[in-house]
Design goal:
single chain; 327 residues; alpha+beta; PUA domain-like; Trna Endonuclease, Chain: A, domain 1; eight-stranded mixed sheet; 7 helices; 30% strand; elongated
Length: 327
């Protein structure tokens, strides 16, 4: 078999792909030394025992379909660092290394085989989403202990096969899941190597705002923790949906939900209002107070806009943080 024969929908085996590409035969991420490819193997069902499910999102965005793939590591927090995180790092930097991501989905046992080997169906070639390559979520391991996982967001590159059975299971009901604040405050530490995408966008305002947002979120979590408050976040899957939404910080002590933005512009304030109103619908049992946290005080008209929507404003200043409550 040659590379030209590897087309979406092809039924093959790990051993056949090992002969073609090389690399190891164990694990979900295989990195052949002498091939410009990284092989990703996933099983729609087996991940569930580790608290996650890989597959296509049913919902597409303006760019197109997304395939979610959970990184390597079944115990403890997943990472990009050291030997334990080396395969995750290889996926993160695949474009810099000139490698293609080729995804295979388990497709039942090999027919007429005495071994437990599974067939592998080739889904297609992928690349990481340029805007959001991965997201961090909380899941439970085999011992039902919470941990942080890396969920890569893969975009098809060329032909692909998208079967209904490969779509992530829809949520039956809307049920917010309380998760550690680390999900939204802990940026996965990446190896000391700059992604090409970062160097291209480093000076863009949106990227600077992202950095300010992350810093503000971490600093405010530290402030609330110093006050002795219990702080968390929520994962929310909407009934009938496959997408997982994640809130900003939630101060459980004050029953207060925050939307944190990295800029105080009109556009960012509008985004914060929409975010808060959207999540408030799905957190009715918490009956949260809604608050926007900004890096500086916005113009007066925007303060009035927030208050008209029943939303408090907290902003950073020389004295720490100032609150402008709804009167």
């Amino acid at each position: 078999m040659d590379l030209a024969a590897i087309k979406p929908g092809l039924l093959t085996t790990r051993s056949a792909m090992h002969e073609l590409f090389g690399g190891g035969s164990q694990g979900g991420i295989i990195i052949p030394k002498h091939s410009p490819n990284i092989l990703i193997y996933t099983d729609h069902d087996s991940g569930k025992k580790y608290g996650y499910e890989d597959g296509w999102l049913e919902e597409e965005d303006e760019i197109g379909p997304i395939f979610e793939y959970t990184g390597q590591g079944t115990r403890g927090d997943q990472t990009f660092l050291g030997q334990r995180g080396s395969r995750n790092a290889a996926v993160l930097y695949h474009a810099d290394a000139g490698k293609s991501l080729r995804v295979f989905m388990a497709a039942g046992r090999v027919a007429n085989s005495r071994s437990s080997a599974k067939q592998q169906r080739y889904v297609g070639e992928f690349e990481l989403d340029a805007q959001l390559p991965y997201t961090v979520r909380q899941a439970l391991d085999e011992e039902r202990k919470p941990r942080l996982i890396i969920v890569f967001r893969l975009r098809p590159k060329g032909a692909f096969e998208r079967l209904t059975k490969d779509v992530i299971t829809r949520a039956e009901v809307t049920e917010p899941q309380k998760v550690s604040a680390e999900v939204v405050t802990t940026k996965m530490v990446e190896p000391r190597r700059k992604r090409a995408s970062e160097s291209r966008r480093a000076a863009q305002p949106s990227y600077i705002a992202d950095l300010r947002q992350a810093q503000l979120r971490e600093e405010y979590l530290a402030e609330l923790t110093k006050r002795g408050h219990e702080v968390c976040a929520f994962h929310v899957k909407i009934s009938g949906s496959t997408t997982t939404l994640t809130t900003d910080l939630y101060d459980a002590t004050e029953r207060e939900l925050y939307a944190i933005r990295g800029s105080s512009t009109r556009e960012e304030v509008r985004t914060a209002v929409g975010q808060l109103k959207d999540f408030a619908r799905h957190l009715k049992s918490q009956n949260p107070k809604l608050t926007t946290l900004l890096p500086e005080k916005p113009q007066g008209d925007l303060v009035g806009f927030l208050h008209a929507e029943g939303i408090d404003l907290v902003y950073s200043d020389a004295n720490g943080y100032t609150r402008c409550p709804v009167s």
